[in-house]
Amino acid sequence: MPDAHRRRRPKLVARAAMIEAARAFFRTGDFIEADTAILQISPGNETHIGAFATRFQPQGGEGQPYYLHTSPEFAAKKLLAAGEERLFIFQHVFRNGELDRLHHPEFLMLEWYRAGAPYDQLMEDCTALMRSCVTAAGASELRHRGRNADPFAEPERISVCAAFHAYAGIDLEPLLPGGPETRDLFAEKVRALGLRVSDDDNWSDLFSKVLSDRVEPRLGEGRATFLTDYPACEAALARLKPDPRFAERFELYACGVELANGFGELTDPEEQRRRFEAAMAERLRIYGETYPIDPDFLAALAIMPQACGIALGFDRLAMLATDAREIAEVLWTPLAAMP
């Protein structure tokens, strides 16, 4: 253990400097840092993100289930509804079942939100923040497993449809969800790539297979990439674009690694409930469990102003800024039992 820590320490020192640089970046932009609760009645309602359950047991009283949050997003949007206009949150978040070179069950998330701003502003934030953090780490580029990206170069912007066409040879637009036949046509295209397709794979499963196998590895080569204009069904918390087949969602990539996920935030509570219920029905089908829907969160959406928000996996950014091979190298106390 001491030897492992000594080997990691230069990267940990750089990570600490990056955190300070990030805080300075937001202070300069007139943001306030919020410290939100980790215990929540709902950990989030995404199909494939697992949570850690716990229980509050008052002395002499009946216990109540709680969860460790998978993101501070619900709390942040409640604060926007309460009148905050610019806020950022550094929080440890918890996701069950995730442990490999890019995932850890506990990790540091950086989220920030802007009321009244277009979601494109978040791309400008990402670019400037990334440059500040890389400089603070004493680096000049992002590196990961033999790949590099120059954070000071102008980032690439490419739509999901353009990326699927360029890197997988799939014209995605005619295959967007519209009925059972689009799923079957999409499945034929995915099989033609040599990827395994199961009978119970739905449209989103097929989308994820192509994205992870053919598209993501090609993003962020030489410079950062913003992958934009996600299909509406792949953006559960985002508002729709004027073309309702697509949503105001983008992701930031460097060296083939996803770093951040940004949205123009959905503020329609009924539509959000419908999306959550659909996601939980799918989670029940796949994993045999669901998570509660937070009624206070839905109530907050009804009075929340138009806003944009983003979540950045800070440990991944530190990993790329220090040329670490896996996320555990930039964690102060990683789990011992790595696979």
Question: Your description of this structure?
Answer:
The chain has helices at residues 2-28, 73-81, 120-136, 160-168, 180-192, 203-215, 269-287, 295-301, 314-321; strands spanning 32-33, 39-40, 52-56, 64-68, 86-94, 106-115, 142-144, 147-150, 156-159, 222-223, 225-231, 246-254, 257-264, 307-313. It has 339 residues and is an alpha+beta fold. The protein has a domain at 2-55 and 68-155 and 260-330: Bira Bifunctional Protein, Domain 2 (BirA Bifunctional Protein, domain 2), CATH 3.30.930. Strands 1-5-6-14-13-12-11-9 form an eight-stranded mixed beta sheet, with helices on both faces. The chain has a three-stranded antiparallel beta sheet with strand order 2-4-3, with no helix packed on it. Strands 7-8-10 form a three-stranded mixed beta sheet. Helix 1 packs across helix 3 (120-136), helix 1 crosses helix 9 (314-321) and helix 4 (160-168) packs across helix 6 (203-215). The longest helix is centred in the first third of the chain and has 27 residues, at 2-28. The mean pLDDT is 95.
Spell out the key features of this protein.
3-stranded antiparallel β-sheet, 14 strands, BirA Bifunctional Protein, domain 2, alpha+beta, 23% strand, 339 residues, 8-stranded mixed β-sheet, 36% helix, single chain
